[in-house]
## 1
Amino acid sequence: MECEKIKSLLSEYLDKTLGNDEARDVKEHLLSCKNCSNDFFIMKSITGELAELEKAKAPAYLLNRINLAVKARPWYAKLLDFIPGSGGFRLPMEFVTFTATAALVLMIFSNIHIDQDGKTIIAESGIPQTTDIQAQSTDSSPLQLNFIPAGSHADMLDSQNVISVGSGPSSGNRDSRTAGNEEGQIINPGRLVSILNNIVQQAGGEVIAKEYEPLTGDVDTVTVKIPSAGYSSFIRQTENLGQFTPAAPSLTEQSSGPVLMRIRLNLLE
Amino acid sequence: MTENDSNENDNDLVRTFKSGDHTAFEKIVLKYQDRVYNLCYRFLGDKQEAEDSAQEVFIKVYRALNRFKEKSSFYTWLYRIVMNTCKNRVKSLEYRRAKTRVSIDDDQEKGEETFSAVTDKNELPDENLEQREKMIRIQEAIDKLPPDQKTVVILRDVEGLSYEEIADITKTRLGTIKSKLSRARLSLRNKLEGII
């Protein structure tokens, strides 16, 4: 019994935070008890090893990754940073959806669109289908796109939160969240990101940043850099899985630089 | 960005950021990125997860810095964000799935990956094999601790913070910190018996 009590005090004895009386009791016990003494010296060795663990260093590109992710945040989120007293305040999704939809409708019917640098441009007829993104580089703002996986509407979501893509079976199979199959691919956020990652790599590009939905912790937005040579292939393969909104622009023949794209994954809309 | 720049006082950097000069944010990242990354790595035991989490931490800092009231020190506030981010990360379904997949399919590779985040194994001479193995086992033992115990043991034994600083970061009473640390150390002692 005394050993159990002493064991509970070893940690504080090690850190020298016990009072004088308790410290003396522990010390006397350790001198007479081989087991507790052994426990103490192992604990001391472990804390020594932990203190000596080599410090893992952040990758050199982390700052760039963070800057890109900060720049890529939507305008309404950036706006909130500068509203005093808005700590913890979140725009309701209905408001965000309504505002975004209203802005899109306004842009379509008023022939206005926003270019890659955030400048407003009056187009001759609606949103252009071809955009010259030659000058796109890692220093400029990324192309903002939404991606809606095929069949990701709420009615395709079964009780296990499994999203089915295509015509295959989707219900009642929890394991399929991580597996997928050839006929009816079962897609969940993690699986979708994994597939996108493969497509990006096949196109010779890289995933630069991931953003997470705060409540679920799932990835909801990915920022990718695609070389112009692999851009068409990337778009084609990704569109096999679903649909970009607005439609992904085509590259002009003069385009040569990499294309930066921030893709929001609309899994529940 | 020079080394001197990154050594500026935290309070000055925070005030500079609040005044609208966002280059102060880059200085904060440069100053703390290694510490944040190491904390994330020790908590999550995975290089890629640590990288993603470190990014998430600094984005949260960027978003919240204007509202930081400086009642506590900046690093206390930052460490609190790190620990909460890592805990949420562990909770997320995606993370648990990934960890399960790794542990079932690729246990051997995980061990090597864990180690590779700490040091380049190619740089080590053969006589350090035993030390490498020990480091892997220590990280695995940390990985298996419950989140609250893991938080305390990382902040105390890896980072070397005082009980008071840990209490401030975790917003927990000193007595609770001491008992969690005691349980964590005894648990590590059981897991690492025969290795250390």
## 2
Amino acid sequence: MSLIATLSSATQALEAQEEALSVTNNNISNVNTPDYAREIVNLVEADPTDDNGVSLGNGVDVESVTSVQNQLLNLRIQQQTSDESSATAQVNALTEIQTLFPSSGTSLSSALTSVFTSLTALSANPTSATDRDAVITDAQTLVQQFNSISAGLTNSVPTLNTTVSTDVTSLNSLTAQAAAINQEITQQSSGSQTSATLTSQLTAVETSIAGLTNIAVTHNSDGTDNITTGNGTPLVLGNQSFALSTSTNSSGDTQVLDASGNNITADISGGDLGGTITVRDTDIPSLLSSLDTFANEFATAFNSAQATGYNTSGTAGTALFNISSTVAGSAASISLATTDPDAIAASSESATDNNGNVANFTALQTTDLSSTGASATDQAANLTYQVGELTSNATANQTAITTSLTSLTDEQSSVSGVSIDEESANLIRYQQAYEAAAKVVTTIESLFDTTIAMISGT
Amino acid sequence: MRFVANISNDIIANIENSDASVETALQEVSSGQKVNVPSDDPAAAAELIQLQAESSNNDQYTANTETVLSQAQDADSVLTQVVSLLNKAITLGTEGASLSYDSVDRVSIATQITGILTSVVSLANTTYDGASLFSGGSSGAAFTADSTSSTGYSYIGGDSINSVQVGTSLSVQSNIPGDTLFTQSGSSVLGALSDLSTALTTDGGSDSAAIGSATAEVSTALNYVSSQHQVYGNTITQLQSQETYLSSDTVTITSEADSLVGIDTATAAENLTQAETANNAVLSASAKVLQNTLLTYLPN
């Protein structure tokens, strides 16, 4: 083997160590980049040359630079990221909503209890103006509680609608990015192997998309990925992305439409988008419906009790609450029909002011109001249970997913994560190799000098 | 598994979890409750609402019991006085029927009987907290002078009997209308007294048989009032035992609510100490692990 050949193989070694150093540098630079997968240089021995029957090594070749990833792990992480974002969106919204049902201070249940205690007080003293005033005041507080909780629930919806819109915008920008990366991958891979960086970037974009909604990813043989939503709406096919859009339905809720304009809101699951839609379209309506049913049944039953008694003027009692005949919206629209304390029909006889009818009011506290088979106090307690259960389930879910996601991320970090210690060691390793190769170059240079000196005879 | 290359994410998550535990423990110590929002324990939060309602009801039932008890005690003492007046009337009637008295004496006895009648009417108009005790729900007096009535008085009250709720399923009768007590047909107190007074003065009180039968009429009225008196006695006994029950039930409810959502100070303090210790451990371990890299040992 000639000195020239050795020199060229030493130069190749220098280049290989340079490339390795550059990969190490890239790893160190991206140590804190989310979803970055460490890259490694695959060095192989160059094909040997035959030198008079002796096979001589020909230095080193850089075969490839690859991104170290476990595709299955990535898919599981994307799945769990979807679930975690969904749970987080629900926890955030519900934690805010449950403050409408405090366990101390003025609450729906305390206002309800006050109405009944005032009525019980009135029973001992049916003609007392003070006791009658107290009933009206407490009924007013109860009405305000119904109104404000209903408003509190309804007012969360516009915020959630905004979240749906911004999520769809983010989703579209991410799917466009994924399509662009696919495009680059196609261009590159037509000649050589898929770029490690591009694969890594694509995975990162997919995880971000998974944070917004549940997705299914299929890997193509050319290194590109196709992305669809969990139930099959295409988002990215090769280098083409399909943007989702939003519209507003008749009740003012933001709906999600696929690229062909079909409403896919109900099919969206997982991710921030799925979690937000669950709270908006399932949790809040169910709480509102319980609240409306409660308001409607209570007011109706109270008004019926009014009708069986007589007010202080000796005429049959009239409705104390204005309540709509339809259940939906009852909590929002309930109001006092009169604030006249004398209108309370405490008496069971028109001629005298007895307390005979008060028992019909206080009975509402413990007897079933109607079809739902629950008394007023039970309904108030059930509402608190309902909101508490929704919030605590979402929180428990979030905790469980976070734990499993942490262990998956640890596993991913173990496969793909950049270790500063490892990179520092590599740095020294490549530095030493580079120095040694450089030494080879200078050695050969001095050999050349010796040879040239021999020729010139100096 | 290779090893977790970038441990800082784990460390941050651990510190966050530990901080959250400290915060929860601190909140429990400061509020004395382990259920601060419904999601802490939905079932306990719902149960608490029931207990709070029961507790408020008990407070009101207790207030009602006290009111009705005072009214009943007042009425009870009124009837005690009526009974004593009627006994006196019977004694006077028996004296009036005796042959040793002359017409002048009988007029004097009749005057005393009329006095007793006036006293009974006045007692029947007793008020409690501004409202007449025996007016049967009517806001005015129970009896008023009425020259057209044989007794000289007529009942102007109502006929309502109020049952006041003093427990979840217990109501007690809080009043007896005046006409039931004092002018009940066949045992009318006012009628008997008025008849006795009339018998004593008619024809100079010569008809001692009439005086005797009028006195017997007063006796009948007395027996009747005594039996009604018993109604109040029973009400008072019932209310007193209800008051005792309510106060012990309130204690039970309070302790139930406390065991449901409350946390005892020792447990809360222990939780806080544990959370703090764990927090310190996480922080000091993190500080050590995070600093340690190969770079620390490399020459500059």
